[in-house]
Amino acid sequence: MEQESRELRRVGLKVTHPRMRILQLFEEDGERHFTAEDIYKRLLADQEDIGLATVYRVLTQFEAAGILIKHNFEGGQAVYELDRGRHHDHMIDVDTGKVIEFVSEEIERLQREIAAKHGYVLEDHSLVLYVRAKRPK
Amino acid sequence: MEQESRELRRVGLKVTHPRMRILQLFEEDGERHFTAEDIYKRLLADQEDIGLATVYRVLTQFEAAGILIKHNFEGGQAVYELDRGRHHDHMIDVDTGKVIEFVSEEIERLQREIAAKHGYVLEDHSLVLYVRAKRPK
DNA sequence: ATCAGTGCAAAAGGTTTGCAACCGA
DNA sequence: TCGGTTGCAAACCTTTTGCACTGAT
């Protein structure tokens, strides 16, 4: 509560009800990756009267402020997660949709090398592994 | 011409005018990566009377048939390229939009290792490097 | 009183689909 | 012939935008 409003002020955004509720959602334990609609539905379920357009606007502002990272995984809907400062990539279980985070310093290094080899500097990258459990449930 | 109709029959698709023209576009030298709209505009410029919906339908069929690969790079529009059987990843020059292909057996191996380490088998992956020329023009 | 922030509805952008006409094996 | 294919328009889905209203300073 206190923490969230400090966070909002820190990035220069007014502390409003929709912003607080959405930020809290991301900072709760449990799910870390949400689409705009996920958030909209959760708020609806909590009796909140927050429009979908507002959800989109807040997500965009949070992304611009560096609070959230936006991912364009397959499937049309953008997915957002808190930017906790530790870069990582994602693995998606194609059967369950579960998102697993991972870090590989070696892959990061290879990417920079490959870009350099072609005369470029790496600005950003997107790596998603689509995986299936070894022993299907 | 002959080659294209054989290709179409091989994958079990009737040889029709729209399918031929679109397949030819991909097999021409030069550009390898097209959006549906790129194709639609090229066909228009060639006086072809092929609807955008048909372009989408043909692209979807070609993808299902394994002739094309579909990429969901950032920016809303899906990009298609011929599946020449040699897997590769992509680098995109963020200034010019240019697409560069590359292969890194080492990254491929690391990806499989990471998936395995988490108890999964790698089914597919998507890797895109966003790069900027070392010495800006 | 002011002005950012909000909800709603409409618009936008990319892609898909229903349908009647058409065409290729 | 006749079922697959196509063009057109309408529908769809996600995201953005216009606008009048609200609410905090």
TrEMBL record, chains A, B:
Its main location: cytoplasm. Its cofactor is Mn(2+); Fe(2+). Coiled coil: none annotated. One of its GO terms (biological process) is negative regulation of DNA-templated transcription. CDD domains: Fur_like. Fe cation binds at residues 87, 89, 108, 125. One of its GO terms (molecular function) is zinc ion binding. It is found in: Cytoplasm. InterPro entries: FUR (IPR002481), Fur_C (IPR043135), WH-like_DNA-bd_sf (IPR036388), WH_DNA-bd_sf (IPR036390). Keywords: Cytoplasm, DNA-binding, Iron, Metal-binding, Repressor, Transcription, Transcription regulation, Zinc. Binds 1 Mn(2+) or Fe(2+) ion per subunit. GO terms for cellular component: cytosol. Gene3D superfamilies: 3.30.1490.190, Winged helix-like DNA-binding domain superfamily/Winged helix DNA-binding domain (1.10.10.10). Belongs to the Fur family. Homodimer. This is Ferric uptake regulation protein.
